[in-house]
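User: Protein folding is very new to me. Would you mind checking the protein record under this note? It all follows right here:
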Amino acid sequence: MYKAIIVDDENRSVETLKSIIQQFCSNEVEIVGTANSVQEAYALIQLVSPDIVFLDVEMPHGSGFDLLERIPKPNFEVIFTTGFDRYAVTAIKFSALDYLLKPINIEEVKDAVSKAKKRIEGKHTQQNLEHLINNLRHPRDKNNKIPITVVNGFQFVPVNTIIYCEADDDYTYIHLTENQKLTVSKNIKEFEDILANYDFFRIHHSFLINRDYIKRYIKGEGGTILTEQGNELPVSRRRKQEFLEWLSSY
């Protein structure tokens, strides 16, 4: 049985999530406390040493991220709760952590708890949180790492080693420097969302390119990109104008 706390400034949200966990996850998780602010949460974590923290991102007097900044080496799993905040969700995804969008969905809670248990058992928690905090401190630093799902967990790959991403139905090929390629069972749209702030552009429905590796643009109906490594990638006619504006705005 894992100990958990809920951190949220809205009592209604706390009670809703608490009720769902007690009804549907009671064999796996016990709620041992709740807090309505960063200050309360910090004191509660010291007191009960939770295994899992359900953490609201947006709070009036300090965000969930601020709480994590105060804890040098977190030894608990975090499941974030948030209304749609593109920046927050992207940062969370980038660090291979989980989140629940409000209004909270029962099945998503059950799934998030299941994933949290696996991460605790795999001892990935501290590393993932450290990546999140670093990515938040340096949101456009291409030394940041993206989590790539592999057979036994995650492989964290520096953004600056990704040349381009290539779609193949529900799979994405991540083409890296040093002639490396990773195959991931995720749609390329997920990588487009994560990498948008790191100078990547979706030049075609099948290709997402890193600006740093563009060597030349060859004119045509849509045109062609030549990478520093000698790859030729098509630019779709539909994306051409937006791509050229993006390229010239550097």
